[in-house]
Specification:
With about 350 residues, the protein is α/β, with parallel strands linked by helices. Helix content is about 25%, strand content about 30%. It is built from nine helices and 17 strands. It has helices at about 5-10, 45-55, 135-145, 160-170, 185-195, 220-225, 280-290, 305-315, 335-340, and strands spanning about 10-15, 20-25, 35-45, 70-75, 80, 85-90, 100-105, 110-115, 120, 155, 175-180, 195-200, 210-215, 230-235, 260, 300-305, 325. Strands 3, 6, 7, 8, 9, 16 and 17 form a seven-stranded mixed beta sheet that branches. A six-stranded parallel beta sheet has the order 12-11-10-13-14-15, with helices on both faces. The protein has a two-stranded antiparallel sheet with strand order 1-2. Helix 3 (about 135-145) crosses helix 4 and helix 3 packs across helix 7 (about 280-290). The longest helix is centred in the middle third of the chain and has 14 residues, at about 135-145.
Amino acid sequence: MGTSEQQATATAYWTVGPEKGELRREELPAPGPGEAIVCTLYSGISKGTELVVHNARVPPCVAAEMAAPNQEGSFPGPVKFGYLSVGVVEEGPADWPGRTVFCLYPHQDRYVVPVESLTVVPDGVPARRAVLTGTVETAVNGLWEAGPRLGDRVAVIGAGLVGGMVAKLLSAFPLGRLQLIDVDPAKRAFAETLGVEFSHPDDALPDCDIVIHCSASQEGLERSLQLVGDEGDIIEMSWYADRKITLPLGEDFHARRLSIRASQVGVVARARRHRRTHADRLELAVSLLNDPVFDVFLTGSSSFEELPDVVRQLSEGTLDALCHVIEYPVPDPKTTEATR
C-alpha cells in the first residue's frame, strides 16, 4: 500500500451485530480548517460499556444519551463505538503536529477531528497510560458529585476499573476512613497497590457518610444501603443497561432518610457544571495520570488486528481485564520519535 493510499483510508472497529465485531476499511477525509489528522498509538477497551454495546443491550430509551462523542452508526448496530484513544497529530494547525493527544474516539488507526476535541497529553504521562484519561474523567465526575468532606467515612463498592479509579483518587483526600470493597479476595493485592484498605462486603465498616457504588450488581447496591449512615449519600456509578434490579426500599430506607444519586459522565456534575467544561475535566484527568501507580489498571495488550477476537473473549469471560490496551502499528519513524 502506498503512502497516499494509506493516508486516504483508515481502519476502524465496528460492532455489526449482537456479539459480533469486525474491522472495516473506510475513507479518511482531508482535514479542514481547525482540524487534525491523528495517528493512533493506543486505545483502551472500556469493558463495561463496550460489552453492553457488543451484546446489543443498550436500552432504546437512552440510545441517544449513550452515544459516544465521535460514534458512527446507531445502536444496536452496525455502530462504531469507543472512547479511549491516544495518538500523535500527523497534520493540523500550527503547533499541533507531533503532539501526543487523547481523544474520545472509537477504535480506529487514523481519524480526523477538530483540534478542540483533543486533549494534549503532558510530558510526564506515557502515551500508553493516557488511554485511562476517559476513565479517570468518570471518576473525577463521580467525586464532584459525591463531594467528600474532611474526615468523612467513605466506602467504594466494586474494585473494578471505575471503582479502583475512584478509590485511588479518594486516597489523596483527608478522609476519616476509606475502604475498597469487593467479593473477590484477590482484589486485596490490587487495593494494596493503590494504597487503599480492602474489605470483603461481610466485613465492611458501617455508618459511612458516603458510599460510592461501582459493582453493577444488585447485591452491591443492597449492601450500599446497609453501609451508609443515617441521612447519608449513595452515589450510583454503575450502569445496568437493560437489566432490572430490586431494592429493599420498604425497610428503613425512608426512616433513615437515605439518598441514592446517579453519576454519569455525559454531563459535568452539577456541583461544578457552571465553572468547569468537559475540556477542563479532561485536562484535569490526564494531569492526574503522572502517577505510575495507574499502570496497575492496564492489565493486558493486543494488536489492533486482534481486536475483534479480544472483544469476543472479554464478552465470553475467557479474558480477564481492567483496561485492555490495543496497540497500533506505527507507520512513520517521526511518530515514534514524538512519543518518546
